[in-house]
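chain below, 394 aa
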Amino acid sequence: MELAQRLQRIPPYPFREIAALKAKMMAEGKEPIDFGIGDPDMPTPAFVIEALAQAAGDPETHPYDESGYGIPQYKQAIARFAKKRFGIDVSPDSEIQSCLGSKEALVHIIWAYIDPSDVVLVPDPAYSVYKVQTTWCGGAPFPMPLKAENGFLPDFDAIPRSVARAAKLLFLNYPNNPTGAVAPMEFYDKAVAFAREYDLLIVNDCAYSEVAYDDYQPLSILQVDGARDVAIEMHSLSKTFNMTGWRVGWAMGGEQYVTALSKCKSNVDSGTFMAIQRAAIAALDRFEEWVPGLRAEYKARRDALIDGLNSLGWELEKPKAAFYCWVPVPPGYTSEGFATALLRDCQVLAIPGAVYGEFGEGFVRMSLTIKGDDKIAQIDRAIAAMKANLKLNW
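prediction:
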């Protein structure tokens, strides 16, 4: 039986391929030091697990969540979080949608708006979902290069006016995966003005908003006056609370966009288990006591990795946010070639930058989510293996 054309149009999900390669190595008795997939390696907070256990024992949580948008208490907790963290007022009744993590929300906002031939402005390099799901819907992804000289921010002035006029969606993601870059308020001001000028919707992927360092506080695009007229923002508890497998997050923004997302979701899924929504309330209401420890842990790993790479000849600045280090490959290597050398010669797993798009060539991504009991020791082992086994021609 032949696959549907929409499935044939898209490549294999890259991290599934990487997981298979890692499994093959382990079957051969090789234990790679894994800087690959960005999946938090620490447990979910105990107070969240306790809240889930209590909620799961309540039969009131067992049926469908018939609200469609999420239980009122969860949406109210999101509104409290948005007020405390970003200083913005978001209506629990009309501007918030509970989601099965942010990935699902990103997919369904594309489904809600994109028809065949519609143009979508997609950063490059970027999380693959933006481009793949646009292609799935028959849309036309137009790459916005993220270059080091621009701080890995897209240059809106470089987008042809004919393309901008044809575009319906614009994807942004800061703190950024894979580059670790951050966006200042001036950039968001410009993005909102650009969206107003060309009548398009900004989809702001804010999954890493709480993973930040050195007192830096990532922003929400909704902090820009009038942003709700042109923007919807996706959030997740996955990275902030080590809850990737729980599949819980939310979207917030302009009412018309939240309504469109909800209409799409109501025809695809039946909402997040209400006990998980209650557990998410416990997480959000205690984020101020939880997040500093999380940031301190990743900061220690960031410092060890960047300092270690710099001792080998790199000249890297420490990223302000996200748990990724975007590392230029040494002279004489491609992204794939350097990742292959790391794995073959050092048993270090990193992701070739070209996986994230054409403009990711020349880099590898190294995640600070590392398996093993002593994370810093794992980083030190990786640096030692690279020093002993790589030819670095600076």
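Residues 46-287 form a domain with the Aspartate Aminotransferase; domain 2 fold (CATH 3.40.640.10). The chain has a mean pLDDT of 95.
thats it, cya
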